[in-house]
Amino acid sequence: MLLVDDDRIEGRWDVPVSDLELALKLDADGDDKVSAEELQKRFSEITSYVLRRLRFSLDGLTGAIVITNKGPIVEQFADGASLSLGLVVTNVAGPKVLEIDYRLMFDLKPLDRAFMQLEYRGVTQTAVFTVEKPTRQFSLEGPSRGKEFLSFTWHGVWHIWIGFDHILFLLALLLPAVLRFEQNQWQAVTGFRAAFFNVFKVVTAFTLAHSLTLSLAALQIVVLPSRWVESAIAASVLLAAINNIRAFFRGRVWMVAFAFGLIHGFGFANVLTELGLPRRALVLALVGFNLGVEAGQLAIVSVFLPIAYAVRKSGFYQHSILKVGSGLIAIVASLWLMERLFDWKILPV
Question: Sorting pLDDT into bands at 50, 70 and 90, what band is 162?
């Protein structure tokens, strides 16, 4: 969050403690936790490290950034603890264009992204920084709503593509879409029409459900504890995968997609609510982000369906891909569930 005045810029920068540990190895006692004392001992090194990866340019002139913290301040968010850093830029003289170059963690985590909210004279602008687009320009004479919208749309696409739990849930629902359960076993559907409508029902149900709860949660009409939401998402992946092996739900997979899609919507919303956007900016971000999620899903489905339909009659698909693949998904989901319920670290991602 940045507040821009005519003569100074003030802001708060939240940096995940896990990122700092990855970059600087702060866990001196090897207990797999970074304590307040460990942050305090290395605080000067931490601030030096992060400031080398952030640059402000005001009308083409580089601004001097100063961290205002006397020591570490730790905040808790849905995805873990973050070090909260206050910053100020004082050599400001009525700039018209502010350019921000942000490169923290992109060298170690290329899939990472950072969100920023900027407020100037009551007008809020937002941006997403990625390894492909680490530099953003902001007009202090008037924001571009179109650029903000496209930025959040692309972020929605990217979020679904790197959201492995959401992808595995979607795949677990789609794997039996080219099959039908008859005589106590999975058999290939007879035509593409049947496969298409199976996929259509699943994707539509999932989309309607997560769009509903994404909106409710992002607008803070309904708020659920993030730990339980993330645990429920892992459980949904597990149950969807087990259903492919034992076929509990059979012809009602779209109902499962809708029911668990409600939970996934709360998970999507965590990305937006932690930005603390004002209602106007939040609505813009919500619509763009949700459209991006749908576009990301459609891209996955458009690749999956033709391939799955082409090989649906083979024993390799009906046994190896459906059952073995679902078993592997179930194992990963079980590990996620234990991690999220008990705050363990098992998987590398």
Answer: confident
Sign of CA dihedral 139, 143, 148, 149: negative
What is the token pair recorded at 310? Answer: 């082409």
Cβ count near 330 (within 10 Å) = 21
Residue type, 10: E
Q: What is the DSSP string of 153-180?
A: HHHHHHHHHH-HHHHHHHHHHHGGGGEE
Q: Does domain 153-342 have CATH number 1.20.1250?
A: yes
- Domain ranges in the chain are 2-143, 153-342
Inter-axis angle of helices 17-24 and 43-51, to 10 degrees? 90
Please give the Cα distance from 231 to 7 (Å, whole number). Answer: 46
Among 323, 293, 316, 313, which residue's Cα sits nearest to residue 175? Answer: 323
In degrees rounded to 5, what are phi and psi of residue 264?
Answer: -65, -30
Which of helix, strand or coil describes residue 12? strand
Cα–Cα distance for residue pair 36/74, rounded to 1 Å? 8
Give residue-wise pLDDT tens across range 40-56: 999 999 999 999 999 99
Q: How does pLDDT run across 105-125, given as a tens digit for each residue? A: 999 998 888 888 888 877 778
Distance from C-alpha of 300 to C-alpha of 84, rounded to nearest angstrom: 36
Main-chain phi, psi angles of 57, to 5 degrees: -125, 125
Distance CA 213, CA 159 (A): 17
Q: What are phi and psi of 108, to 5 degrees?
A: -100, -25
Beta bridge partners of 100: 56, 136
Q: Which residues pair with 61 in a beta bridge?
A: 58
Question: pLDDT band at residue 327, thresholds of 50, 70 and 90?
Answer: very high
